[in-house]
Known about the structure:
The chain has helices spanning 14-35, 39-46, 50-71, 106-120, 146-154, 170-181, 224-233, 268-278, 288-301, 312-333; strands at residues 2-3, 74-81, 86-92, 126-132, 136-143, 192-193, 199-200, 207-213, 238-243, 249-250, 262-263, 282-285, 304-310. By secondary structure, the chain is α/β, with parallel strands linked by helices. The chain folds into two domains: 2-77 and 308-333, no CATH class; 83-185 and 196-302, von Willebrand factor, type A domain (Rossmann fold), CATH 3.40.50.410. It has a six-stranded mixed sheet with strand order 5-4-3-8-9-12, with helices on both faces. Strands 1-2-13 form a three-stranded antiparallel sheet. 34% of the residues are buried.
Amino acid sequence: xxxxxxxxxxxxxxxxxxxxxxxxxxxxxxxxxxxxxxxxxxxxxxxxxxxxxxxxxxxxxxxxxxxxxxxxxxxxxxxxxxxxxxxxxxxxxxxxxxxxxxxxxxxxxxxxxxxxxxxxxxxxxxxxxxxxxxxxxxxxxxxxxxxxxxxxxxxxxxxxxxxxxxxxxxxxxxxxxxxxxxxxxxxxxxxxxxxxxxxxxxxxxxxxxxxxxxxxxxxxxxxxxxxxxxxxxxxxxxxxxxxxxxxxxxxxxxxxxxxxxxxxxxxxxxxxxxxxxxxxxxxxxxxxxxxxxxxxxxxxxxxxxxxxxxxxxxxxxxxxxxxxxxxxxxxxxxxxxx
Length: 338
């Protein structure tokens, strides 16, 4: 804990002074009681047990200490939202995401987890959404309008699946996310030139990619680690989620397939390697609860950095509650003449 005005903590000296004053007053009361001859009346006036007589005063002193600390404007170390932070959600929408080993389906669980992610991130953080199967497409550009991203999440899979953009292009999807992260802002932005003379966007340490897939690469121009290399070069960490169980299967009912069952196990090794190469973190989610927990954790940590937040209000609220309690107890336990 740190303080804006640490010298004001010297006001805490009031507390031992108040304790001394209270002790002196109690001593004077004891001398008065020794001169009082009617013991029965004295006992009824004193009332209550020994600790009950002193508890309201003790609570008052704690409240006084809390007020003194509040004067110094205390701050606690916490995670605060970064300026201009952006998270790009990349979600696999290939046909294998219809497997039901994760309930209700892999895609349904991913959508629910992405909605939870939006609830956890800072309100002003920019979020983008890319869906991919055989190729990647931008479902929502980077925006702080989380309702727009939520609508895009709801529509995932409507136009994907077997027969339309089938396959899993992990490397291309990573490259698309990096390219989206490096787009100049609409209101302008600076660029720099590399040795080849090609203008490139400066590295943005406030961009992260959350990448979810349930299978191994089957399509695309870039291999997964080639896409990861682009993210690493751009300074963008990739947090990967491998969704599904090794026993996951789908039963496509298209001409030529019949009732054939196709195994669709996830590829955690590849996604783990992507996270390790880019400085991200890997999550292995074999249930709806696991993918929900992964996105909840990421939503509570991405787009934030260590900082300070003022907690003066906590001490003020605590002092007010303690003063109220001291007053109520004093009125309840105060001695009364018979």
